[in-house]
Amino acid sequence: MSAAGEPTTPTPLGVAMIGYAFMGKAHSQAWRNVAAYFDVPAVEQRVLVGRDAEQVAQAAARFGWAEAATDWHEVIARDDVHIVDICAPGSLHAEIAVAALEAGKHVLVEKPLANSLAESERMVAAARSAREHGVQSMVGFNYRRVPALAYARRLIADGRLGTIRQVRASYLQDWLADESAPMTWRLRKETAGSGALGDIASHAIDQIQFLLGDTVTDVSGRLHTFVGRRPGDGGLENVTVDDAAWATLSLSGGALASVEVSRVALGRKNSLQIEVYGSRGALTFDLERLNELQFLDGAAPDAEQGFRRIVVTEPDHPYAGAWWPPGHVIGWEHTFTHQIQDFLICIRDGTAPSPSFEEGLQVQRVLAAIEQSDAAKSVRL
Amino acid sequence: MSAAGEPTTPTPLGVAMIGYAFMGKAHSQAWRNVAAYFDVPAVEQRVLVGRDAEQVAQAAARFGWAEAATDWHEVIARDDVHIVDICAPGSLHAEIAVAALEAGKHVLVEKPLANSLAESERMVAAARSAREHGVQSMVGFNYRRVPALAYARRLIADGRLGTIRQVRASYLQDWLADESAPMTWRLRKETAGSGALGDIASHAIDQIQFLLGDTVTDVSGRLHTFVGRRPGDGGLENVTVDDAAWATLSLSGGALASVEVSRVALGRKNSLQIEVYGSRGALTFDLERLNELQFLDGAAPDAEQGFRRIVVTEPDHPYAGAWWPPGHVIGWEHTFTHQIQDFLICIRDGTAPSPSFEEGLQVQRVLAAIEQSDAAKSVRL
Amino acid sequence: MSAAGEPTTPTPLGVAMIGYAFMGKAHSQAWRNVAAYFDVPAVEQRVLVGRDAEQVAQAAARFGWAEAATDWHEVIARDDVHIVDICAPGSLHAEIAVAALEAGKHVLVEKPLANSLAESERMVAAARSAREHGVQSMVGFNYRRVPALAYARRLIADGRLGTIRQVRASYLQDWLADESAPMTWRLRKETAGSGALGDIASHAIDQIQFLLGDTVTDVSGRLHTFVGRRPGDGGLENVTVDDAAWATLSLSGGALASVEVSRVALGRKNSLQIEVYGSRGALTFDLERLNELQFLDGAAPDAEQGFRRIVVTEPDHPYAGAWWPPGHVIGWEHTFTHQIQDFLICIRDGTAPSPSFEEGLQVQRVLAAIEQSDAAKSVRL
Amino acid sequence: MSAAGEPTTPTPLGVAMIGYAFMGKAHSQAWRNVAAYFDVPAVEQRVLVGRDAEQVAQAAARFGWAEAATDWHEVIARDDVHIVDICAPGSLHAEIAVAALEAGKHVLVEKPLANSLAESERMVAAARSAREHGVQSMVGFNYRRVPALAYARRLIADGRLGTIRQVRASYLQDWLADESAPMTWRLRKETAGSGALGDIASHAIDQIQFLLGDTVTDVSGRLHTFVGRRPGDGGLENVTVDDAAWATLSLSGGALASVEVSRVALGRKNSLQIEVYGSRGALTFDLERLNELQFLDGAAPDAEQGFRRIVVTEPDHPYAGAWWPPGHVIGWEHTFTHQIQDFLICIRDGTAPSPSFEEGLQVQRVLAAIEQSDAAKSVRL
Lengths: 381, 381, 381, 381
Hints:
Helix content of chain A is 34%, strand content 25%. Chain A has 381 residues and is an alpha/beta fold. Chain A folds into two domains: 13-142, Rossmann fold, CATH 3.40.50.720; 147-289 and 291-330, Dihydrodipicolinate Reductase, domain 2, CATH 3.30.360.10. In chain A, the strands form three sheets. An eight-stranded mixed β-sheet of chain A has the order 8-11-12-7-13-14-15-16. In chain A, helix 4 runs parallel beside helix 5, helix 5 (117-132) packs antiparallel against helix 10 (357-374) and helix 8 (196-212) packs across helix 10 (357-374). Chain A is globular and about 60 Å long. The relative contact order of chain A is 0.15. Chains in contact: A-B, A-C, A-D, B-C, B-D, C-D. At the A-B interface, strand 7, strand 8, strand 11, strand 12 and strand 13 of A face strand 7, strand 8, strand 11, strand 12 and strand 13 of B. Strand 8 (216-224) of chain C pairs antiparallel with strand 17 (379-380) of chain D.
């Protein structure tokens, strides 16, 4: 605390990150680069934590972390660690996050918040308590920080689309299209919780709520597994999670959204597509072309209406001014850079980051309701 | 009957058409032009039938019909009429079609087959009896005759997509996006049967079954009306049909299909979009670019895979050889020209055209099941 | 002449067409259908003229012509023929057109106007004389009648693009990409005049002048033949026309345009692409998607600018209201239908159609200057 | 030298960079991140050099340089500096590069190589001498390191396009479209050398030669300035460089290429577009969608041909395996990261990097020939 009773941000803020696989690589990138583009409190990549001492040491060297460690309990107790960034598997989120928050560390946790509603609720409780003491927390729905989607939200909030009626969101990948792709922990319910639903429908659902500034109130859905058995170490094993999921969602403001996700949609690599139709405008987006937003302004005369391709790299676009001149596109990784920036600004200013753990829990509740709904019988012809 | 007992096709075949609005204009175009491009039995546009004597006479003159008439009963009794093309409102389909078939006339009827399952079943019965006597019948799902979609069906039938898993079909329009658009008979359940569901989801569902050569076995769906009241002659009236509909469909071969249709999707004029994902290939289509098909061949090496834009105007493409050199695109109207061609060839050859009335009835059953499913409760959060 | 001394249009106008190959098929379509969509003076397809009596009779039957004939001299002398539509090879244009005009017949001639400047000038002289007597003439640059391009011209004329600076036009085809494609009369200078230059650059150049309402004042260009020898009846023969051509054109209003055309651009079937950049707006077009125009309005705030895809099927778009509801696209063939409509309206009203023979001659002069420029040496490194 | 007489790479390699504006920011990014993704010799960002002591110190802190300095002469003399990266204005390239090479430092210089042919030739001479002593040099045509373009080169080299005939390259920007944009040093011939020609046509020309593995032999071109006067400090000043340039280029292997560049093409932000047409295949690319390559395989049956959109993020694609899973796109900045990687590998292996100073000089010669050609008269109508 400063003399005036205001919290002061330690300088530099020490960061510990837990996990160094795909998400660890992406988050490291963000920590390493954020200060070159944005005016944020000084940070230091202090320590990277993982189970395998040798591998975590190598990863730390490669990704720019000063130290490596294997025991996260020790690390979150260190005085020179002020922020804990959790990229560990979902089953560990709750334990680490609660402990870190109780130790007074700001926490960023990858999505989904946790593998169960019960764990998620514990995390929300810990986040609420910590927040009262100026300790911040955030869940990593990084696609909120795609400039095109942040700009889309602004257009919607400014009323440029009028009343939102219909939203179409799909997230299609194909890394399970090949039926000889092997069994992994991601395809077992006990370790992964669910399949495409938790992994990518979570992104789609968070994004719908983010764009509309609204909340899902009821759902109806369906899950399906196309490839029921895959080769494991000892022969074919049963896949116990979904390959694809479908849902329709009602939002409290009156909009209806459809969600379709798949990991067997051959030819779609990482295609989160979103369409929003309102009474006065519409927009569409595809993550494979993440620097672009298609916007239709219904206020134009009929003869002049059309979806316009906005290259979201202008100084006035969210985040874009920090980068390169217009038309010089940025990559997927910088959704994380923007996320870190926003997180650091909140820490500096003592404000609550969004998406909060509460928002992460709300997404989990929608996912659970879809699974519950799937049990309902469809109508046979 | 010829001496040999084979039916001979009268030359020329006399055609009567009932109805002269949007579909009448489109069908007239097909009758007027089919013989300039395809080798079909000779036909004559004998008589156009409508209620208003003056208007039907004008339409007949404009659209190339030799005569106009107001009483369809008389027309279907004429010896010089061999084909009856029904473009009248859906509520009249059953009565006219059954009478014409019983009079020994070949019948083409616009989709949907009828407004009720009971009527549809009566029409199927009449079509079956007539077929035994060499009298043919067909329902006008004209999008089966888009060259790109006929070619897509061929690729699927040839196994180029492997096992079909996931199909995404949407049909989006926006002519009801404006909430001041007035009340019409199309927005009342008693006259229209349903809204976007019967009008455009019927196309999407027929197309899914056509492309896959498969049949829907169960459905789960949802209907919604975004603009509940619209200005009528005497003030605001209640809209009693859906503006939009959503469904997931199981097919007997194991595929799952999603369908989403809307008449309030601002910026989408006539956008029937279809995506098909199989184990070895994928394809996408948009009716607003109906000369194009996007095809991904999963047999190519990973580094070379991608959706390729095929301009479906090559001599080897279905129907395309009859038209212009490659790259010279055709319009929406010629789905009807192709339909007439196929219908005439079936009449000449004494074979049963497809889609048959049975196929039309099957689509009606899917629509009915979606409405039934909508009554089921969704899960509230 | 009417009592008031005004010419009256004979009813119906009798049409004779000379030639029945590709263009004859396309023009026949237009004559057969124009009155079903547009309010034009009544016309009758009286007689089709060709050299081979049997073939022309078959074509006449197929394409809707009442009679067939082999001697165009006799046909243009007939009292019941009021319009002569010339689809014969370019080397015959001048002789037929001049004779027809002198016989008091309105003349529509396919592009290019003629194979030589001398012939073109004779035709212009005949057209001028005839025009004084109310006899009209027109050259068939049909792409002026693409709704999207007619709308583009309107946007430019209305100042929506500001001062036009840069135009990029390309017309790419690939029917000569295969080097085993055989020798034809189209590949010999003595019969074809030139290659891609006269065949397709003529379209691009007319379109540039049409869109801008401006005139080319100087040019600099280059021609090239990639496949110099092709298989003929008696072995390999020399190709004596260009496969591709490039030019830059100055326009009197200050704009600069580039033109690139090719018949060996593999994968491009019939791709006339046009981009126009002005001080306040821009637009792009591709003939393979002829129902679409991309428009960028530079008056919008930077963050909202982007090329918008306008589907040019709205009632307010040129020609579009005559066809189908919005989003129901038309085909390449109706550029001819629109051309005939405009021609008939001019005949009825006694006004001069555009593009006139003078405009056709101006395009020929630009082509000749490009050939002349090609003789100039480029700079060797 | 090692005991065996082989050069050993110092560890870590110390880097000095001169210049810290746009290119300095982009190069810093590459130095800061390269080792996190690629296996390269260890490097250290030792010192950043600029004229303004305060600003260079701030830039050094922000971009990750250990020190800042204002005198490049001193810096290139330092023993702990092994690499000099020159991002200073083009007029300084020759002096710094020659001095650094003579001091035994490896040199990377931004494009264009220099502002004059004489300077470029001096640099080439210095590079040749240095190369004999294992001192490497490279010019920064970073677009050679776009994965899609490196992959395009591979497809061409593998013969997948057959004989290349026609290349179309354009580089369109719009930052000078507004005629009230102010006068700068970039718009004066004495400081900038040329306008769009040297700035962006240089990229297009290098890319053509890179993709085809071929050399331009003769050129014919045109330059134009659309906005001749712009507001300067003391009123309107004359713009003395080109706003746009056009050229056709012959390549020694028989291909012809067109180049069009502009800084007034409203709506185009950073659009380098390239099309390559060969006898057996074709491809297209747009820098605004730099993760995509469109490829047409002419070996497929006609009915299956089409440009396929390859998302160039597969492990087998050049550079792509180092980044993220397929479909997770990278940004413009990593063309520099790849460039640094290739440069470091060459330093480590003692091989000559490409593009060499000789290749940079060749591009300068093409640009000079275009300017010379522009003096030739076009043909007036």
